[in-house]
Amino acid sequence: MRLAMLSLLSLLALEVVLAADPPVPALPQPGNLIIDHTRGEVILSAKVQYPRGKPCIDEYGERVQAFVGCAQAAGGEAKMAEYFVFLVDVPTERVYEALLRLGCKPRVHYSIQEGRKRSGLKPTTTPDDYLQGDPVQLSILWREGEKWIEKPYQDFVTERVLVEGQPTEKPWTPHFVFHGSGVIHKSGTGCIACPCDCAGGIIADNRYPVYDPKPLVKFDLSKAPKEGTQVYVRIRPLISR
Asked: 93, 202 in Cβ contact below 8 A?
């Protein structure tokens, strides 16, 4: 079982290494973003920061703050900007609007206060207790020397679960959906893609109801580019018709 788990981790951790030319027709300049209707994606410009000492950075814990988020939100500095590893240089509202223009749709969204009233798995839990919208995939793209590297967002993170009472590491397997709550309800957090079903951002892992239970996760900074590296966040929605 352990060997099978290690083999799965190795496969999932594979990174895509590309030639010197970027693998997209155009990359955004700092302070801008690109909506690519042909490829069905939004590309954001970001810088890497190392938020050491914050929850789930190089150690397991529970976290509502995203690992990728914006420096600006709700007309000012984002409340959670210092928590992000990938710090995007456009406001959260522009990211939300870009996904809408691409055709991505939010469905169930809540303010942070309303979301807390719906938290936890209970016999009375209903589909409306989960944030909902079109599924999305995220990846991080950056250049090292003459090579371009692209990794899925989830490959920087591992998850810990209990198996027969024993803590066991596994790949992080989020189910990300675009719910838009953070912009619709003006939370100002700046979060883009939260590691739990959190109403503060615009994309969330909705495997569980709003806020609880939270997955036990760890972001491994050794897998990230060096602090200060220019990176690009690619968001690809699966748009419902």
From this structure: no
Q: Are strands 132-133 and 72-73 parallel, antiparallel or unpaired?
A: unpaired
For residue 53, what are the CA distances in angstroms to 44, 58, 61, 84, 93? 26, 9, 12, 12, 28
Q: What is the spatial distance between Cα 83 and Cα 72, in angstroms, rounded to a whole number?
A: 13
- Residue 220 structure tokens: 């491994």
In the beta sheet, which residues pair with residue 18? 148
**β-bridge mates for residue 169, sequence order:** 160
> Among candidates 67, 96, 11, 59, which has minimal Cα distance to 191?
67
What are the Cα distances from residue 103, in Å, to 35, 92, 160, 192, 217? 11, 17, 35, 17, 31
Convert the pLDDT of each residue in 109-137 to its tens digit.
999 999 899 999 999 999 999 999 999 99
Kindly report, residue by residue over 124-177, the tens digit of the pLDDT.
999 999 999 999 999 999 999 889 999 999 999 999 998 988 999 999 999 999
Residues linked to residue 171 through DSSP beta bridges, in sequence order: 158
Peptide bond preceding 91 in cis form (omega within 30 of 0): no
Residues 6+ apart with CB under 8 A from 141: 22, 23, 24, 43, 148, 149, 150, 231, 232, 233, 234
